[in-house]
Design a protein that fits this description.
By secondary structure, this protein is an alpha+beta fold. It has six helices and six strands.
């Protein structure tokens, strides 16, 4: 993670705030410049592109977040309001997401890359356990790789299906 200088030059500070739609203290202050593909604001400072919410944190609190994440209480990636930002680990950020109900359960059929259904997983496991059929045969039958079938049978994949 790129370190943000604690003493940005005045012209970079002015340029930063010119790209922010500053509102009331409780509202989100949205980054107006072109967002990063993941939805966060970013700004070039010297030779580096830095995330706008991390810059806002440094400008307001005067300390670099270092390796910590700068998380949003508002869950709006383009928000740079320092009152909406807090430091945390990746685990803290994920726990916050789950606590707020933003965690998307993408297991099994809910995963857009799933090639089988839950019912097919049960059938594959039962068929293999009964014997007489190889993992290679099951892979061909269901359009999977042998490694995929092996992981499915061992419960490495689709572990939530019994």
């Amino acid at each position: 993670m790129r370190s943000i200088p604690q003493n940005l030059p005045p012209h970079d500070i002015a340029r930063f705030w010119s790209k922010v739609d500053k509102r009331d203290p409780d509202e989100c202050w949205l980054w107006k410049d072109t967002p990063h593909p993941k939805g966060y604001g970013d700004m070039r400072v010297g030779q580096y592109k830095l995330k706008a919410h991390r810059i806002a944190y440094v400008l307001h609190y005067g300390v670099s977040p270092g390796e910590l994440k700068v998380c949003h209480t508002c869950d709006i990636p383009l928000c740079v309001n320092p009152a909406h930002l807090f430091l945390g680990t990746q685990k803290d950020n994920v726990d916050d997401m789950v606590r707020k109900g933003r965690h998307r359960d993408a297991r099994g059929e809910k995963n857009g890359r799933a090639k089988v259904t839950a019912e097919q997983v049960r059938t594959i496991r039962q068929t293999y356990a009964a014997g007489g059929v190889s993992q290679s045969q099951l892979a061909k039958q269901y359009g999977l790789t042998v490694i995929g079938v092996s992981k499915l049978i061992r419960g490495e994949n689709w572990s939530h299906i019994t």
